[in-house]
Specification:
49% helix, alpha/beta, 24 strands, 15% strand
C-alpha cells in the first residue's frame, strides 16, 4: 500500500512567505479522485477509528494555532506594555538614580521607587487578571457555538456532524450550501458547486468547482484557482460536494496566511476615541512636566527636588488604570450578556451594540416562531390535491443540499398522512441544488421507464418556468397550456394565501426520458405547474413586546427578508411593527447609492432581497450616520453580517454566518437582543465615566500645581505624598466597572464623542482647582502654614483636600442627577470610595504619614474641610446643570 503523503508541518515548509499552498494538494488536484484517495490511504466510505486515532496523534487538532488564546505569561507581558506604565517605569528609573544611586548615604530613600513600583504592579496585575479571565470566558463561550461538519467514517450509515477540530487528512466530508469548508480538501464529487473565496482573495464572485478538471489545460495560475480543491475558511454558496481532507490546521492555506489575513479587525470609533484621549493626556503630560520642573526650579532653587516633584506630577497625570478599566468593563459586559443568552465573540463589539440605533433583521424566527407548519397542499385552483403533496415530498426528501424548515415541514406532514409508502419506490437520479438567486431547487427521480423532474420554489420564480398546468380533475386531458388567465388566477389565489399570513411555494414537474446524465439549470424549463404548498410560521408571542422595548430604547427595527411583501406586512401588523414604506429587491437594485440612502431611512420592510441587496441597504444606512446591527443566520446573510457595525447571529446558524458575526444569540429572539443592547450601553457608560473622571481630574490638578508652584516658597506637596495620593485615587476607581447606570441613560443609543471628552475636561477640570486654591489660602492665612518650617502642615492639609475631592468626583460625574439623593452608586463603589477617603483622613495621623513628611491636622481644620467639600459638590452640581442645558448631555 502506498505510504500516506505527510502534509508539511510548519509554515516554513509552505514556501515563500508562507503563502504557497501544500504541494501535495496541487499534486492531488492533477490526478483523478480515485488516485487522490489512494495517495491519502483513504476510501470513499471513510477512515477507520484506528486510522483516525493515529492521524490525530500525527497531525494534531484541525486548528490554526495562532487563534488559540495567548499563554498567561504572554498576557502578563502585554498587560505591562502600556504607554502609562512606560511613563511610570521611566519615572521610577529617574527616582532610583536621584534618590538612591546618586543620593548622599544619609538621604537615600526607596520610598518613591516602592510607590511607583506598586502602581505599575497594581495596574499590570489588575489588567492581566481581567484580560486573563476575559479570554478564558471567551474561549468557554466560543465552545458553546463551535462549528461542525458532516463527516463520513467507516461503519457510519451516513455522514454525521462532528466538530471541525476533529478532522484529519483522509477524512471524507460532505458539503452543501451554507457550510464553511473545514479544511483544505480535494473534491471527489460535486453538483453545481459554487464556493466563495472572498475571505482569502477579497473576490466577491463565487467560483465554480469540479471533481475533475474541465480541460487538460495548465492547472492554475494561482493556488487559489485550483478548480478541484477548496480551502479552509471559504464557504459553499450553492450546490453539494463530497471531498477528502488533504491538509488541516496550520498546514492549510488559511493556516499559512493566518497572520496576514486574520490579524486585528479595524479599530472601532470607540477604540480610536480611547487612543486619542490617552495620547492627548500623554502630550499634556509631556508639556506640563517640564513646565512644572522649570517653575519650581527657578522659584525654589532646589533643582533636584523640583525634578522629583515634576516627575511625580507626571505620574499624577497618568491614567494608568485606563487599560484595566476598559478591559474590566468589556469583560464584565461579556459575562453579563452571556447570562442573557448573548455570546460576545469580539469584546469591542459591545460598544457598537450599545450605540446601535437601527436593527435590520429577517422575520423568520425573529418575528415568527421559526416553527413552520405545512397548512395545505393545493392544486392550481386552490383545492386540496394529494398529488401536490407527493411531488413536494419527493423534492424535499431527495435533496441533499440546504434543507430548511420548509422541507422539514413537508416531510413531517407527509409522515402524518402515511403518504411515504406511496412514493418511496422512486429512485433518485440527480438534483439541481438550491441557490439564493434562483430561489428554487429540483430533484430528478425515476419511476419505472421514465424520469421525473420535480421543482419547488418561490411562486414568481417557478411560474416563469411553467408552460403547462395540471388541471387534474378539472379537465379530461389533465395537462393543458398555462394561459395568461391561469397565471392571473394563480397570483390571486397565492395573494389571498399571503394575506392570511401563509407563505406559499409553487410545485411543478416535468417528465423526461430515463437518462443517466448530469442535469443542469437548463433543464428547468417548460414545466407543468401542479399547485402550491402554503406554510404558516406563527408570530412569536414576545415579538410585540420586544419591538416596543427596542423602540423605547431608541432602536428602530427594519425587516430585510426574501419573502414577499404581503406576507411580511401581515406579520408586521400582528406584532405591532408599523410599516411606513416597503421596497422590493428590484427597487433597491434600481436606485443609486445616494437615492437608496434617503429611501432606506424611511423604509421599514425590504422584501425579495438578495445577499448583495442586503449589504447595500446596510451600507446605505451607515452612510447616513446610523450605527446598524444585522441579525441573520443564513448563508445569504454572511455579507450583511460583515458589513454591519455589529453582526448578530444565532447558535443554530450556518457556519459562515456564525463566523461572520460579532455576537451570537443562544435564542433567536428580539427580547434577548433588547436585554443585550441595554447591557452594552451599561458597559459603555462605565467606561465613559472613568475617562471623563480621569481627564477632568488631571486637567484640574495641573492648574493647581502651577498656581502653587509660582506663589509658594516650598513644594505644595512632596513627591512621595503626590504618588501616594495618586495611588489611593487609582484604587478608588477600580470598582467602577461594577457601578449601576441611571435608567434614563439607557433609553438612547450612545456613541463615542472625542470632542465631548475634551469639552467636558475644560468645563469640569478647573472646578477642583478653585477649591485647591481656597485650600492654599486657608492653610496659609488661617493655619499659618506660610513658611518652609510649616510646609508639612500645608502639604498634609492639601493632601487630604486633594484626595477627597478627587474621590468625590467619582460620585459627582457618574450621574447627571444629584448624587446620593437622586442617584446612588453601586455598593462596591460606595464602600471603596468611603474606605479611600477614610484612609486619606487618617494618613496624616499615622506612622506612615509621619514617615512621608506629614503631620497631624488640628481639629479646627475639619470644619473647613467639610465646608470646602460641600461647596465643591454644590458648585460641581450647578456647573453640571448648566453643562447639560448647554450641550444636552453629560456622560
Amino acid at each position: 500500500m502506498n505510504k500516506v503523503t505527510k502534509p508539511p508541518q510548519n509554515n516554513r515548509e509552505m514556501g515563500s512567505k508562507g503563502r504557497v499552498v501544500s504541494s501535495l494538494l496541487v499534486e492531488l488536484c492533477e490526478c483523478s479522485p480515485e488516485q487522490a484517495l489512494a495517495r491519502l490511504e483513504a476510501t470513499p466510505t471513510g477512515l477507520t477509528e484506528q486510522q483516525v486515532e493515529r492521524r490525530q496523534e500525527q497531525y494534531g487538532l484541525n486548528e490554526v494555532s495562532h487563534e488559540k488564546p495567548p499563554t498567561w505569561y504572554h498576557q502578563l507581558f502585554e498587560a505591562f506594555l502600556t504607554p502609562f506604565n512606560g511613563v511610570l517605569f521611566a519615572v521610577s528609573i529617574v527616582s532610583l538614580f536621584s534618590d538612591v544611586i546618586f543620593a548622599a548615604p544619609d538621604d537615600r530613600s526607596f520610598r518613591t521607587v516602592i510607590v511607583l513600583s506598586a502602581m505599575v504592579l497594581l495596574s499590570t496585575l489588575l489588567r492581566f487578571w481581567q484580560e486573563f479571565r476575559s479570554n478564558q470566558a471567551a474561549e468557554e463561550l466560543k465552545a458553546m457555538v463551535s462549528s461542525t461538519t458532516a463527516v463520513l467514517r467507516a461503519g457510519m450509515p451516513r455522514a454525521q456532524e462532528l466538530p471541525i477540530s476533529a478532522l484529519v487528512p483522509g477524512d471524507i466530508v460532505h458539503l452543501s450550501a451554507g457550510d464553511m469548508v473545514p479544511a483544505d480538501v480535494r473534491l471527489l464529487s460535486a453538483k453545481d458547486l459554487f464556493v466563495s473565496q472572498a475571505m482569502l482573495t477579497g473576490e466577491s464572485l463565487p467560483l465554480e468547482k469540479y471533481p475533475l478538471l474541465p480541460s487538460p489545460r495548465s492547472l492554475a495560475r494561482s493556488p487559489l484557482e485550483l478548480e478541484t480543491a477548496s480551502f479552509m475558511g471559504t464557504n459553499v454558496v450553492s450546490g453539494t460536494a463530497t471531498a477528502v481532507v488533504v491538509a488541516t490546521g496550520d498546514t492549510t492555506y488559511f493556516g499559512a496566511m493566518a497572520r496576514d489575513i486574520v490579524g486585528a479587525r479595524p479599530l472601532t470609533s470607540f477604540d480610536i476615541g480611547v487612543n486619542r484621549v490617552s495620547w492627548m493626556l500623554i502630550r499634556f503630560l509631556l508639556v506640563m512636566t517640564p513646565l512644572v520642573f522649570l517653575i519650581n526650579g527657578i522659584t525654589k532653587g532646589d533643582w533636584l527636588e523640583s525634578l522629583l516633584f515634576a516627575v511625580s506630577v507626571a505620574v499624577g497625570l497618568t491614567p494608568e488604570m485606563l487599560p484595566m478599566i476598559v478591559t474590566a468593563n468589556l469583560a464584565k459586559g461579556a459575562v453579563m450578556m452571556a447570562r442573557r443568552k448573548s455570546i460576545v465573540k469580539r469584546l469591542n463589539a459591545i460598544q457598537n451594540f450599545g450605540a446601535m440605533d437601527i436593527l435590520c433583521t429577517d422575520k423568520t424566527g425573529t418575528l415568527t416562531q421559526n416553527r413552520v407548519i405545512l397548512e395545505r397542499h393545493l392544486d392550481i385552483h386552490g383545492n386540496e390535491d394529494s398529488q401536490v403533496l407527493e411531488l413536494a415530498w419527493l423534492n424535499s426528501f431527495h435533496q441533499t443540499g440546504l434543507k430548511n424548515l420548509l422541507d422539514v415541514a413537508v416531510l413531517e406532514y407527509a409522515d402524518q398522512l402515511e403518504l411515504v409508502g406511496k412514493v418511496q419506490h422512486y429512485q433518485k437520479v440527480d438534483e439541481i441544488p438550491f441557490d439564493f438567486v434562483r430561489r428554487r431547487m429540483s430533484v430528478i427521480v425515476r419511476n419505472g421507464g421514465k424520469n421525473l423532474l420535480v421543482c419547488k420554489g418561490a411562486i414568481e420564480e417557478v411560474l416563469g418556468l411553467c408552460a403547462f398546468a395540471d388541471e387534474n380533475a378539472a379537465a379530461p386531458e389533465g395537462v393543458v397550456p398555462f394561459t395568461d388567465e391561469m397565471r392571473r388566477n394563480v397570483r390571486e389565489i397565492t395573494r389571498d394565501l399571503n394575506e392570511d399570513g401563509l407563505r406559499a411555494l409553487a410545485v411543478a414537474y416535468k417528465e423526461l426520458p430515463p437518462e443517466d446524465r448530469a442535469y443542469t439549470v437548463a433543464d428547468e424549463k417548460e414545466l407543468v405547474l401542479a399547485g402550491y404548498v402554503p406554510f404558516l410560521d406563527p408570530p412569536k408571542e414576545t415579538a410585540r413586546e420586544a419591538i416596543a422595548a427596542l423602540n423605547e430604547h431608541g432602536v428602530a427595527v427594519k425587516i430585510i427578508t426574501g419573502d414577499n411583501e404581503v406576507v411580511t406586512r401581515k406579520i408586521c401588523k400582528e406584532v405591532g411593527l408599523a410599516v411606513d414604506l416597503a421596497m422590493a429587491g428590484k427597487d433597491v437594485a434600481a436606485l443609486a447609492d445616494a437615492e437608496l440612502a434617503e429611501a432606506a431611512e424611511r423604509t421599514t420592510i425590504f422584501t425579495k432581497m438578495s445577499p448583495l441587496e442586503k449589504s447595500r441597504v446596510i451600507r446605505a444606512l451607515q452612510s447616513k450616520g446610523h450605527t446598524v446591527g444585522y441579525l441573520g443566520d443564513g448563508i445569504n446573510d454572511a455579507a450583511a453580517l460583515k458589513d454591519a457595525d455589529v453582526g448578530i447571529s444565532v447558535d443554530t446558524a450556518v457556519d459562515i454566518a456564525k463566523e461572520s458575526a460579532d455576537i451570537i444569540l443562544l435564542e433567536k429572539s428580539l427580547l434577548v437582543l433588547e436585554e443585550a443592547v441595554i447591557e452594552g450601553r451599561k458597559t459603555f457608560a462605565n467606561i465613559i465615566k472613568y475617562i471623563k473622571m480621569t481627564a477632568s481630574s488631571n486637567f484640574g490638578n495641573v492648574f493647581s500645581v502651577l498656581v502653587a508652584s509660582v506663589f509658594l516658597p516650598f513644594l505644595p506637596m512632596l513627591p512621595i505624598q503626590l504618588l501616594i495620593q495618586n495611588l489611593l485615587y487609582d484604587i478608588s476607581q477600580v470598582s467602577i466597572p461594577w457601578d449601576d447606570v441611571d435608567r434614563d441613560y439607557l433609553t438612547q443609543p450612545r456613541k463615542w464623542d472625542a470632542g465631548g471628552v475634551a469639552r467636558f475636561m475644560v468645563f469640569i477640570g478647573p472646578i477642583s482647582s478653585i477649591f485647591d486654591i481656597v485650600t492654599f489660602i486657608v492653610m496659609w492665612h488661617v493655619f499659618g502654614a506660610d513658611s518652609v518650617e510649616k510646609q508639612s502642615l500645608f502639604q498634609s492639609g492639601w493632601f487630604v483636600v486633594g484626595l477627597l475631592t478627587q474621590t468625590l468626583i467619582v460620585h459627582m460625574i457618574r450621574t447627571q442627577h444629584i448624587p446620593f439623593i437622586q442617584s446612588r452608586a453601586a455598593t462596591p463603589v460606595i464602600l471603596l470610595t468611603v474606605s479611600i477617603m477614610a484612609i486619606g483622613i487618617y494618613l496624616p495621623f499615622s506612622p506612615l504619614g509621619a514617615h512621608v513628611g506629614m503631620v497631624p491636622l488640628p481639629m479646627s481644620y475639619f470644619p473647613w474641610l467639610i465646608g470646602i467639600l460641600l461647596s465643591y459638590c454644590l458648585l460641581t452640581q450647578l456647573i453640571k446643570r448648566f453643562y447639560i442645558r448647554r450641550f444636552g448631555q453629560w456622560l
